[in-house]
Model the fold of this input.
Amino acid sequence: MPRPSRSSELADAIVDLITDKNLPPGTPLPTEARLTAELQTSRGPLREAIKALQAQGIVEVRHGYGTFVAPASAEAMLPWLTFRARSTDTLADLLDLRELLEAGLARRLAATGVTPDTVAALKACVDTMAAGTNDSADADCRFHEILCEAAGNALAKDLIGVFWRAYATAEQSIGERSSDASALAERHERIVDALLTGDGEVVEEAVRRHFDEVRERLSR
Done:
């Protein structure tokens, strides 16, 4: 097995520094001079390591100010996922992942109880979808983000946002939606009604049925 490059080793060392010190997003990293001294390296490999971490969304470089821990986000995986989503098989896999993720979180939310504020936010999204305006797609995405937030999983919310954008890019390859605004709203309203029952099985079934329309499009 080939030995990792010096820049790769430095990138790993910087990640270790961030995690070991539990540095939150926005925290400045040590200066270049200090890092070269602490990591016993030269500027060239260190700058290559910083560029690699920047491309991965782990750090951000603010010219004239320094290098900072980047905001926690799943955005770094979007280019890769969008490229992979050109394949119908990958879209089907992505759909399965979303379904598993959201069904599990919705079941958890039903068990813990959904708050009135969450219900109101979900219903507002349903109303926007039913209106069939230009905001309908955003309301659809927001509906699923709210589910993740209410279930207490911020990472899932980020992933859903990235999955959604990958789907939007691949929309033409799987054809136009076959359902109208009222049908779209009805599928989401069914999830809200299921959450109010507090029955995990009922909620999970409602979420799974929601994905049927996209799955049918992929199977054509």
In short: The beta strands are 59-62, 66-69.
